[in-house]
Specification:
Strand content: under 5%
Number of helices: 6
Structural class: mainly alpha
Distance between the termini: 32 Å
Largest sheet: none
Helix content: over 70%
Length: about 160
């Protein structure tokens, strides 16, 4: 996660320039991707499950692969890459890149801590509490995605919201 996000922080603006993508386009695309994930959090029963009950039981017995290859694309996927590239395009000096890089490192460290504490908190909160938290975080992520899209549209048309 750290390597992917720092790489896009450093070369993201060059990638945008090479493909001719505007920051507004990145914000709208990132907002749509975050919106898709948020919607699936708000509607977990319609989240596109394809596993049968037997498959789920067999998956619980297998070795945990949560960090690779499943979690890495979710933690440093298109939504977070869009955010990092957005920050990189607004950076004006090396100090801005250092601050953004430190912020990425801090987010990675906090994420690591949260993931390490997740089994303990899941036992404490319980199944119902996890469902409530998932829907609440889905709503917040949906609001963030709408703001991304509005920000991209306003930047494209040259006005601010």
């Amino acid at each position: 996660m750290l390597a992917v996000l720092l790489t896009f922080l450093l070369i993201g603006t060059f990638i945008l320039s090479f493909f001719g993508i505007s920051l507004a386009g990145i914000r709208i695309a990132g907002g749509l991707i975050i919106m898709r994930a948020a919607y699936s959090m708000l509607n977990p029963e319609k989240g596109g499950r394809k596993l049968t009950a037997e498959d789920e039981a067999a998956a619980l017995e297998k070795e945990d692969i949560s960090f690779s290859p499943l979690a890495l694309p979710l933690l440093s996927g298109p939504g977070s890459i869009a955010v990092v590239i957005g920050f990189a395009t607004q950076a004006g000096s090396a100090t801005d890149y250092l601050i953004n890089g430190a912020a990425v490192v801090l987010v990675v460290a906090v994420t690591y801590g949260i993931l390490r504490l997740a089994p303990i908190s899941a036992k404490y909160i319980g199944h119902t509490g996890l469902n409530v938290m998932t829907r609440l975080m889905g709503f917040i992520a949906l609001a963030i995605s709408v703001q991304f899209i509005l920000s991209g549209i306003s930047r494209y048309y040259g006005f601010s919201l």
